[in-house]
Design brief:
The protein is mainly alpha-helical and 219 residues long. It contains ten helices and no strands. The termini are far apart.
C-alpha cells in the first residue's frame, strides 16, 4: 500500500515538474533530466510512469492548458458584466484573455513548439488532434455555455471558430505583440463582419412592421 501511494506521488510530482519545465524552458528544450530535477524524482521513474519524456510533456501541456482555462473561466465569471451588450461582453472577454497571455507566455510558445514535431512523431500528431478536439468543446462551453453532451454539433462548430480565433491571435501576439489585435479591435472587426452579412431592412418596411402591417419589399 505504501509503495502504491509512493508511486502515485512520484507520478504526480513528475507531472508537476514537467509543467514547471514548460514554463521555464519550453517544450523542445526540456530534457528528461530537467524534469527529474524539477520534480525531485529519479530519471528512471519517467519511463516507469509515462513511458517517455514526450508522453509526460504532452500530459503536462494538457494539464497546464486546463489550469489556464479554469483560471480564465473563474476570472470571467467574476469580471464580466451580465447586463452588458453581447459585443461588449465579447470585447471584455478577449481583453481578459490577452492579459492572461503575459503570465502564460511560455505555455503558449510551448504549444506552437509541439506542432513542429507532428511530421516526425505520429503519437504527437494524435496528441494534438485529441487536444484540439478537447479544446473545441471546452471553448464552446467557456464562451457560449454550450454543453457538448446536449448539442455536440453546435459545440464543435462554435468551438472550432473560437479555436481558430484563439490560435490566430496567439500567433500574432507571440510574433508581434505591438501590432497584435486588442479585445476592442476584435469586437470592432466582428461588428463590421456582422453588418456586412446582416440584411438591412428598409426604413419604410421597419415602420410598417412596427405598426403590425405586412412587410413589402421595396424596389
Amino acid at each position: 500500500m505504501a509503495g502504491t501511494l509512493g508511486d502515485m506521488g512520484n507520478r504526480e510530482d513528475l507531472l508537476a515538474g514537467a509543467v514547471r519545465c514548460l514554463y521555464t524552458k519550453g517544450y523542445a528544450r526540456t530534457t528528461a533530466r530537467d524534469i527529474a530535477a524539477a520534480s525531485d524524482v529519479s530519471l528512471a521513474a519517467i519511463g516507469y510512469h509515462y513511458r517517455s519524456k514526450e508522453a509526460l510533456l504532452n500530459a503536462a501541456l494538457i494539464q497546464a492548458i486546463g489550469e489556464w482555462g479554469a483560471e480564465l473561466e473563474h476570472a470571467l465569471a467574476a469580471e464580466t458584466d451580465p447586463i452588458a451588450e453581447p459585443l461588449e461582453q465579447f470585447e471584455a472577454t478577449w481583453e481578459r484573455i490577452l492579459a492572461s497571455f503575459d503570465t502564460h507566455r511560455q505555455l503558449w510558445a510551448a504549444t506552437f513548439e509541439v506542432f513542429a514535431q507532428i511530421d516526425r512523431a505520429p503519437e504527437v500528431r494524435q496528441f494534438l488532434a485529441d487536444a484540439l478536439q478537447q479544446g473545441r468543446l471546452g471553448l464552446a462551453s467557456l464562451f457560449q455555455h454550450i454543453d457538448a453532451g446536449a448539442d455536440v454539433r453546435s459545440a464543435w462548430v462554435v468551438g472550432s471558430f473560437y479555436q481558430a480565433l484563439l490560435t490566430g491571435v496567439l500567433a500574432q501576439w507571440l510574433a508581434d505583440p505591438e501590432h497584435a489585435p486588442s479585445g476592442h479591435d476584435l469586437a470592432e472587426a466582428l461588428r463590421t463582419i456582422l453588418a456586412a452579412v446582416t440584411p438591412v431592412t428598409p426604413v419604410g418596411a421597419r415602420a410598417t412592421a412596427a405598426r403590425g402591417g405586412p412587410v413589402v419589399a421595396e424596389g
